[in-house]
Amino acid sequence: MPEFETLLCTLADQVLTLTLNRPDKLNAFNRVMMDELIRAFDHADADDGVRVVIVTGAGRAFCAGADLSQGAKTFDYAARGDRPGVGAATQGGDVDWSDESVRDGGGRVALRIFNSLKPVIAAINGPAVGIGATMLLPMDIRLASEGARFGFVFNRRGITPEACSSFFLPRIVGISRALEWTYSGRVFDAAEALAGGLVRQVLPGDQLLPAAQAIARDIVLNAAPVSIALTRQMMWRMLGASHPMEAHRVDSRAIFSRGASPDAREGVMAFLEKRPAQFTGRVSADMPPWFPWWDEPGYE
């Protein structure tokens, strides 16, 4: 794993912990953090020594949202002048809405997390506001400290929810609660996040990372990596399916191909022999030939 400016990366017992590391700025999100989070997940997927990813924050915040140090220009890409290619998108006064430079930075991170082949656990150690809240949504399991706070504050800043949150948030907490939280943009506590289904558990601060690590260890010790990678993508992508037949088609491929794998033989024999399974399949080399199925011609 390379060295990063805005992230700390620690790999132990096949669990990679990514710590947002701008504590003096409450881990505020900037373009460097965007690039580094994407690169970190790229490395995690390519490394068979990484089985689970935990994301947390340094200091007293998880992520306080976008870095607002540019003031009124913060969300104006062209005025900011720090986004390569944005001029091409606005040449002649007409915006090319399909230009790469128009894309939302938080959305790039959310999509990269969505595409992860490794499980992702959020250990939310403090305030998670704006992109700090929306980047959590494509993570699989979210734990919060008692001091965590959440805010989908975009309407209060004159912008709109980003980072694909219009897709993720209603699916996680329901449309009514998602609209209440985003309409008002108010900041709410961990108890409300728990009641709304945004987080799985609220813990004292000193128990947060140990709890996340315990979940990660259970996955590492007991489940086949290739099966996990397939399960993660099957579950997330079927959230948008229009009919259960779409799931049946993918499930059938998965059961057929995995059922003939050494991992399936090992899993059954380990159960019958009452011993821990030793799975040998690797995400980097042993994904089935039909994966990723959504890239097939004609797949919608």
User: Structural class, from secondary structure content?
Assistant: alpha/beta
- N-to-C order of helices and strands: EEHEHHHEEHEEHHEHEHHHH
Q: Using the coordinates above, name the CATH class of the largest domain.
A: Alpha Beta
Q: In the residues, how many domains can be counted?
A: 2
Q: What's the CATH topology label of the largest domain? A: 2-enoyl-CoA Hydratase, Chain A, domain 1
Low-confidence stretches: none
Write the CATH architecture name of the largest domain: Alpha-Beta Complex
Structural commentary:
The protein starts with 6 loop residues before the first strand and ends in a 28-residue tail after the last helix. The chain has two domains: 7-219, Alpha-Beta Complex (2-enoyl-CoA Hydratase, Chain A, domain 1); 224-295, Lyase 2-enoyl-coa Hydratase, Chain  A, domain 2. With 300 residues, the protein is α/β, with parallel strands linked by helices. The chain is 41% helix and 13% strand. The strands form two sheets. The protein has a six-stranded mixed sheet, with helices on both faces. Strands 5-7-8 form a three-stranded mixed sheet. The chain has helices at 31-46, 77-80, 86-89, 105-114, 131-134, 165-173, 175-184, 190-195, 205-222, 225-238, 244-259, 262-272; strands spanning 7-12, 15-20, 52-57, 120-124, 128-129, 141-145, 149-151, 187-189, 201-203.
What attributes does this structure have?
globular, 41% helix, 2-enoyl-CoA Hydratase, Chain A, domain 1, alpha/beta, 3-stranded mixed sheet, 2 domains, 6-stranded mixed sheet, 9 strands, Lyase 2-enoyl-coa Hydratase, Chain  A, domain 2, 300 residues
